[in-house]
Design a protein that fits this description.
The complex is a heterodimer of chains A (about 220) and B (about 120). Chain A has helices spanning about 10-25, 45-55, 70-75, 95-105, 145-150, 150-155, 175-185, 205-215, and strands at about 1-10, 30-35, 60-65, 85, 115, 135-140, 160-165, 190-195. Chain A is α/β, with parallel strands linked by helices and about 220 residues long. Chain B is of the alpha+beta class. Chain B has one domain (about 5-110): hypothetical protein PF0899 fold, CATH 3.30.2320. Chain B has two helices and six strands. In chain B, helix 1 crosses helix 2 (about 40-50). Classes of the chains: A alpha/beta (about 220), B alpha+beta (about 120).
Chain lengths: ~220, ~120
Amino acid sequence: MSIITIERKVLEKNDEQARHNRDLFTLYQNFVINLVSSPGSGKTSLLEATLKCIKSKISVAVIEGDVQTDLDAQRIAKLEVPVVQIVTNGGCHLEAKLVNDALQALDLARTELLIIENVGNLVCPANYDLGEAQKVVVLSVTEGDDKPLKYPTMFRNASVLIVNKIDLLPYVDSNIETLKQNALRINPNLTIFELSCKTGEGINQWCDWLEQHMNNKG
Amino acid sequence: MHELSIAQNIVEIVQQNVPELDWPKVRSVVTIVGEQSGVVPDSLQFSYHAITASTRLEHSELDIEPVPFTIHCIECGVDSLTDQGSVQCPVCGMFATTIIAGTELSVREIKMDESYEVKK
């Protein structure tokens, strides 16, 4: 049998595009975060709370990724922040090329912080680098404290974990300490925030972290 | 179900290495899939055959080589296989470990019929 040696990463094409995006972000000095979670854990609510907290201090732009509709972009546009909606039409994750296309509609030179809200899915987006500086995974307490163990790839590839909906802790069986322990078993370097978009608890600490990171970067 | 897009990437890699007229001579595409790569081998297999059906690659196989998840402990120096992607050393219990295998996702080689001459 004849053998052709290849030794190439399957997602090399996406990685290349992600590198290109990253170069752009470095050029324009944008701090970019990729927000990932399962559907309904509160990514868009977190975005709204975050924008309200920091938009007077930092120039922010948002890229929204959804399988269908521009409902999320409409929510963000109400806060008078530049926003582009990517509709994947069934696609379960964002790829670097889709983000690059969306960038054409944004003024990167006037953007300090770019937040990309990925498609709600705790599996597929983990494999696709978009060129971001930090991958932030959101997990709500209603989803159960075993989720980091069930979806380890996402938690391994993220640098920040936001535990959302902590106001619901008295009503659910999730144990927040178990949840954090499970997450750290997969990724001991995770920075963890506990917050509630509903009550506002913990939002300031998260926004302080964002600001701090932007200052360090600049 | 991102395995479909992964399978498409694999076919593109074949395309870049074997001229399309020679695709019927492709026996198998050997792909390395780490246990913790986030890819489900069965779904990938299904997707590969779904997208190569009715193409010149339809008789080729996707040969998936799984790689177990392995960590190296910086504290006690032992390499261990762990379950469920845990990075806790099962020997000393420490988390100061590095992942040494099990997250890879790559095409290693393409096996061709003997009649095919591999250009060096």
